[in-house]
Specification:
Layout lengths: L2 E13 L10 E17 L3 E6 L4 E7 L13 H14 L4 E8 L9 H16 L6 H16 L5 H8 L2 E5 L4 E5 L6 E5 L6 H14 L1 H24 L2 H17 L5 H12 L4 E5 L6 E5 L5 H10 L3 E2 L10 E3 L1
Parallel strand pairs: 3-5
Antiparallel strand pairs: 1-2, 1-12, 2-5, 2-6, 3-4, 6-7, 8-10, 8-11, 9-10
Helix pairs in contact: 1-2, 1-3, 2-3, 2-4, 3-4, 5-6, 6-7, 8-9
This protein binds (3R)-3-hydroxy-3-methyl-5-(phosphonooxy)pentanoic acid.
The site of (3R)-3-hydroxy-3-methyl-5-(phosphonooxy)pentanoic acid has 15 residues, from helix 4 and helix 5.
Pfam families: GHMP_kinases_C, GHMP_kinases_N
Pathway: Isoprenoid biosynthesis; isopentenyl diphosphate biosynthesis via mevalonate pathway; isopentenyl diphosphate from (R)-mevalonate: step 1/3
Keywords: ATP-binding, Cytoplasm, Kinase, Lipid biosynthesis, Lipid metabolism, Magnesium, Nucleotide-binding, Transferase
Length: 323
């Protein structure tokens, strides 16, 4: 095949962010906003990249110089994914790659992991090197670590498997949960968070006070385990309570923000079962479990506080070939 197109979903962290970096479990759901990646074999020895969502149009890089530090930020995940794939299989070829996203990279929906997974999957199809999910995971996760230095890989797993997943760092455990679509409301604060910075901030706090922060991680881990059970039972009321408890602990980790608190309080006021930030914190999105008949009111109260409602469906399908 000379050209293929694939798509991979974005994600939302439901429970367990940050603690997952320290070996505790988390729960993530894939959302129906997808990243699309088209890969085409080209003559010559260059990678030509079109990623208009991140202002990269017609960027050309030599294959023997992929992932150089001087490359624009928006090209790194693609270049390093190509490099890692080619090195694994001893492939040399020119390529043209185009990426296009259904969602803004500002939301924190995991555009880096979705694009990385999309590139690895598309390359495996174009060069006819069949890879199972675990092999796609390993290549993609190593790419994320090469570019970003930190991360549990939960977002990579969501992009590959889709659905709703109970996850332990580095893919030590990837358990797809048999749950239906979740009654979630998602509010964007309008503030872009930088995940590696927040992960480092929590790491510094942990270094300063291992006892206290370690206990917070343990409690987050316990909440995540409880949430897994509640999810399997479809007990959204309980899940709301667990979200509120998780949020208290995230604030103790000092990754809350006034904008997040405003929207979370608004959601509770509007009748949500419970609400919390989702992801690294400091900005990006908050999420709330809501009774069906309160969803509209919750959305309205969030908007009144300056949040932008993002319509998502949870449990979206994992990476797949497009016709
Ligand atoms: O900012 P996001 O949505 O990519 O979430 C980061 C979640 C962390 O647990 C803080 C980091 C990680 O890789 O697990």
């Amino acid at each position: 095949m000379e050209r293929v197109e694939v798509s991979a979903p974005g994600k939302l962290m439901l429970f367990g962010e940050h603690a997952v970096v320290y070996g505790r479990p988390c729960i993530v759901t894939a959302v129906d906003h997808r990243m699309r990646v088209a890969v085409e074999i080209a003559d010559g020895d260059n990678l030509e990249l079109y990623a208009p969502d991140v202002d990269v149009v017609g960027y050309v890089e030599r294959m023997n110089n992929l992932g150089g530090k001087e490359a624009p930020k928006g090209t790194r995940f693609v270049s390093v994914a190509v490099r890692n794939f080619f090195n694994s299989f001893g492939i040399k070829s020119g390529l043209k790659i185009e990426t296009r996203s259904d969602f803004s990279s500002e939301f924190g929906f995991g555009s880096s992991s979705a694009v990385t997974v999309g590139v690895i999957k598309a390359l495996s199809e174009v060069f006819e090197k069949p890879l199972d999910n675990k092999k796609i995971f390993n290549l993609s996760y190593n790419t994320i670590l090469d570019v970003q230095g930190v991360g549990s890989g939960f977002d990579v797993a969501a992009a590959i498997w889709g659905g709703t997943i109970y996850f332990v760092t580095g893919g030590k455990k990837i358990e797809p949960l048999a749950v239906s679509e979740l009654p979630l409301v998602v509010g964007y604060t309008g503030v872009k968070a930088d995940t590696p910075t927040l992960v480092r901030q929590v790491a510094n706090f942990y270094e300063e006070n291992k006892g206290l922060v370690g206990k917070i991680f343990d409690s987050v881990g316990d909440i995540t385990k409880e949430s897994r059970k509640a999810l399997l039972k479809g007990d959204y009321k309980r899940l709301g309570k667990l979200m509120d408890e998780n949020q208290v602990l995230l604030e103790k980790l000092r990754i809350g923000s006034p904008e997040l608190s405003n929207l979370i309080l608004a959601a509770r006021k509007g009748g949500a079962y419970g609400a919390k930030l989702s992801g690294a914190g400091g900005g990006d999105c908050m999420i709330a479990f809501v009774p069906k008949d309160s969803a509209k009111l919750v959305e309205k109260t969030i908007e009144e506080k300056g949040g932008k409602i993002i319509n998502v469906r949870t449990g979206a399908r994992g990476v797949r070939l497009e016709d």
